[in-house]
Structures are given as structure tokens and as C-alpha cells.
Amino acid sequence: MNPAEPSSNFRPGLNGVIATETHLSHVDGQNGNLVIAGYEADNLARHASFEEAAYLLWTGKRPTKEANISFRQSWKETTRSSWTTWSKIEPFIETFQGNIMESIRVYIASLQARDTLKPNKEQWIQDALSITSAFSVGTAAAWRKGQKQTPIPPDPNMDHVSNFLYMLQGEYPTPKAVDALKRYLLTVLDHGLNASTFTARVIAGTRSDLVSTALGAFGALKGPLHGGAPGPVLEMIQEIGTKDRAEPYLRNLLESGNRIMGFGHRIYRVRDPRADILAEAAETFYESENTSSDFYELAMHVERTALQLLAETKPDRSIKTNVEFYTALLLNGIGIPSQLFTPLFAVGRVVGWLAHVMEQLEDPRIIRPDSRYIGPFHGSWLKDSKEKR
Ligand code: ACO
Q1: Residues in Cβ contact with 59 at an 8 Å cutoff, skipping those fewer than 6 apart
Q2: Closest by CA position to 265, among listed 191, 175, 185
Q3: What is d(CA 250, CA 325) in angstroms, rounded to the nearest whole number?
Q4: Domains, the chain, with CATH or none
Q5: Whose CA is nearest to atom 22 of ligand 1?
Q6: Bridge partners of 191?
Q7: Which of 87, 107, 178, 389 is least crowded, fewest Cβ atoms below 10 Å from its Cβ?
Q8: In this structure, how many other beta carbons lie within 10 angstroms of the beta carbon of residue 54?
């Protein structure tokens, strides 16, 4: 084929390309449904614990009562080891002067990796536990370090989600805060072949190591078009400040060619179902905790205005609220600083990344799409050099 000819196979951004089969999650963009390992995401987020959901994704089945007890026990022991590893790297983290993403990246990079990935499930689950608990310990400890507060070791009697809040805030969390955060983490646990999961699978395809897959995925997640959106969502609502400023502010944003953070999705053409799960959790939380309802109402007004303006200015697109909008609301309500929104996304999503890595190992092929060359053909280097002399 002439390289200048457009290829019918070329799909910019791999849009619509099915690059893998998975048992882990089903994202139905037309109907706004999300199924995680066979369970409706909403149902899982309400009723399963974080540990049970991780077990489900990593083994493909619900834990029995006995399996649940022993899995939780190993989880707690692994969290203790993650704290020990953190303590060793803590003096070095000081150099990052409170840059939370850098600090977590460096801590995760310091975890011990095996030479190559092998499809050995038992060993893999232990390594996956180490990385998962490290994201939680690292996020809480690095944040406190950056705030010039003493990092707090995990409480050996607490579950994963409560422990995170305890290590971050230094006090025992309320059951409502734990439930709200657990719902958030389970809502973002896995989501098809999103950018960070794809990154993890590409790295796994080369048979690199588990730590590298999580680290690569974390790097992809950081971008503002992926997991970096909820911080800017909160800033946007705060900057808008009052209901009457919403319309001119958002109109100006669109007219100057900017995107409204927390809206739009590659797959969903209807409202992101995760936004619904988190909207309900946020509403319940704000009501029950008597947290500022003014802020919640302002956010609702911003959402309605943004949807109206997006329908008006991009009528041929179906741009709806995505998960990040309500992530910002819910996490802000729980008292999580906005700089931690992206790391917290990773605290949940790491479970999905690692499950995808294991699944990828069942495929012996490396992931290697083609590209189409659209640059010039100059002929010989030698000829060009002579002409120039
Ligand atoms: N605000 C304004 N315009 C938008 C928005 C938005 N939030 N989202 C898409 N558009 C417009 C684009 O400007 C583009 O317009 P054009 O065709 O006139 O140039 C059109 O819609 C299509 O944009 P694409 O980037 O091709 O759409 P895609 O489906 O690939 O993008 C994405 C999805 C990246 C999420 C986009 O909607 C976006 O940037 N949203 C804002 C950032 C955000 O909220 N990210 C979090 C996503 S959820 C997650 O990753 C967990």
C-alpha cells in the first residue's frame, strides 16, 4: 500500500477498537451500565467490602467465609510490611517537598520487584496485595509528610478503607465516612480498557514485572484527561462560588476552547453510571453529616448549567456528567484534600490494574499495534550530504 494512502484500519485514539477480551468488567456505553466481575457496580459498591471485591477480581470468585478471614489476615500483615518499606524510604521522600504524586511514584518504585512476570497465581496475589496496600499507606503517609505532620502507622485491627482514613486523618473515622469512601473506591475499581489499565496490560504483555505495570498505569492515570480531572472539578466549583456566576463562567470556558472538567467520556454516550452511584453516596453523606449543603447545591447548579451549555454548543456530541464530577463532591465531603483525589483513584483502581495484568499473562502475545508513516522519503543520506557541501 502507498504509505500516503489513508488506511481503513486507522482508528485515531484506538477509538472503538476491541484489543482484548476480559472477565473483569463490562462497560456498556450506550445504556450506561457497568458490571464488575459479573456484579452490577452499584450493587457491589453498596454491599461488598473492599477486600471482598479485590478477592473477586483477583480470583474470579466470591470469597468463602474462611477465605475471607485468611485473606483479610494476609492483607493486614502486608499493610504492616508496606509501612516498614515506607519507613525506609521516608527520609528520601522529603526531597519532593510535598509533591504528592512524585512522592507516591518514588515509594511505589522502591518496592521490590521480581525479575519477570510469571502466571503463578499464588505468588502473584501476594505481590498484588503488597502493591495495593502500598498505594494506600504511601498516599496517607506521603500526604502527612508533605504537610509536615508525622505519618501514622496502620492500625492492625482495621480494614483497608478505615485504615486509610485513620492513617491520613489521625483519628478513627466515622462509619459513614468509611462507607462513603468504600463506595467510591469500589465504584472506580475497574473500568474496561481505560487508558491506565491499557498501559498496565501493554507493560504486562512484555512480561516486565508487577511493580512496573502499576507504576506505568499510575503515570497514565495522572493526566488531566483521565484521573487528574476531579481536582480541577473542585477548583472550578469553588472558583464559580455562587450560582449566578455559573453560566458566564462556563460559557467563557467553552468559548475560549476549554473543556469543562467532569463531563464527557470516550465510551459513555449517556450519563456515566458511576456518577449516579457517587451522586447518591454524596447526597446521603452531605445530608447525614450536616456538611455544607450550600456547596452541594451550588455543585448541582453547576452540573445542570454545564449540561445545558454542552448540549447547546456541542449538539452533535452527547456530553454528560462523568464519574469525576461526583468524585470531587464526595471526596471533598469526606474531608479529603483535592490534591489526593488522583492518588485515591489509584488506591481503588490498582486492584483492577493488577487483575488485568494477571489476565494479560494468559495471552502469550505482546501488544504491538501498527503505525502509518506520514513523514517524507528523502532517499540516501549520503546524497543529501554531498548536495549540501
Ligand atoms: N467540555 C467541553 N467539550 C468537550 C468535553 C468537555 N468536557 N468533552 C468533550 N468535548 C468536546 C471536544 O472539545 C470535542 O469537540 P470538537 O469535536 O468540537 O472538537 C468533542 O467533544 C470530542 O472530544 P474528544 O476528546 O474527541 O472526545 P473523547 O470522547 O475522546 O474524550 C474525554 C473523552 C477525554 C474524557 C473528554 O470528554 C474530556 O476531555 N473531558 C474533560 C476531562 C474529564 O472530565 N476527564 C475525566 C474522564 S473520566 C475518567 O477518565 C475516569
Answers
A1: 121, 125
A2: 191
A3: 15
A4: 35-173+191-223+340-361 (1.10.580.10), 230-333 (1.10.230.10)
A5: 317
A6: 193
A7: 389
A8: 28
Q: Classify residue 207 as left (phi > 0), alpha (psi -120 to 50) or beta.
A: left
Global pTM value:
0.90
Q: Is 66 a catalytic residue?
A: no
**Whole-angstrom Cα distance, residue 114 to residue 207?**
11
Spacing, Cα 263 to ligand 1 middle (Å) = 7
Q: For residue 118, name the pLDDT band (cuts at 50, 70, 90).
A: confident
Give every CB contact of residue 203 below 8 A, 6+ residues apart in sequence. 212, 213, 216, 217, 357
Where does residue 195 rank: exposed (0-12), middle (13-18), buried (19+ CB within 10 A)?
Answer: middle
CA of 28 to the centre of ligand 1 (A): 18
Please indicate whether residue 265 is annotated as part of the active site. Answer: yes
Residues in Cβ contact with 147 at an 8 Å cutoff, skipping those fewer than 6 apart:
98
Q: For residue 58, give every residue at least 6 positions away whose Cβ sits within 8 Å of its Cβ, in sequence order, or none.
A: 125, 128, 351, 354, 355, 358
Burial class (CB in 10 A: 0-12, 13-18, 19+), 354: buried
Given a cut of 70, whether residue 384 has pLDDT beyond it is no
pLDDT at 292 over 70: no
Contacts of 159 (CB under 8 A, 6+ apart): 49, 50, 51, 72
